[in-house]
Amino acid sequence: MSTPRPLTLIVNGEPRALQVEPRTTLLDALRERLDLTGTKKGCDHGQCGACTLHVDGERVLACLTLAQQAEGRRITTIEGLAGPDGTLHAVQKAFLAEDAFQCGYCTPGQIMSAVACIREGHAGSAAEIREFMAGNLCRCGAYPHIVAAVQRAARALEQETLA
């Protein structure tokens, strides 16, 4: 057992101090130490995308990232995606409108990847969305609805920008 070390993570805009062993993953630190359970543990091998979140605006698999690697960086989890007043992000609204989930287990990771997909300019076509989102698996097979949700959110965010 390694000795826990102090660590400060900036999670959803708030500095959070904790003590973790050096080998603790970001996923485990968030779920087990900070009670942020929206980010899911699926395969724990970086193959399913359930643990997708953003670190400094970039899509990251939290199960493959050590908590220490994220020290001082801006972490956004699914809990921090909505506005401060609780207004859902356009992607969250689109997932609801398009019924882009069934069991919901993969949904937080899907949404976080969808936000990155749109932000990085990969929502031009259904094929492009499917390619970008390929790292996020859905055992229920809601893929057509997920693609539709990403397209809807991309249109909504583009209209917001133009307004």
Automatic annotation (TrEMBL):
Specify the 2Fe-2S ferredoxin-type domain's residue ranges.
5-81
Record keywords, A-Z: 2Fe-2S, Iron, Iron-sulfur, Metal-binding, Oxidoreductase
What Gene Ontology terms describe what this protein does at the molecular function level?
2 iron, 2 sulfur cluster binding; metal ion binding; oxidoreductase activity, acting on the aldehyde or oxo group of donors
* A Pfam family annotated for this UniProt entry: Fer2
SUPFAM superfamilies cross-referenced by the UniProt entry: 2Fe-2S ferredoxin-like, CO dehydrogenase ISP C-domain like
Provide the protein name: (2Fe-2S)-binding protein
**Which species expresses this protein natively?**
Teichococcus deserti
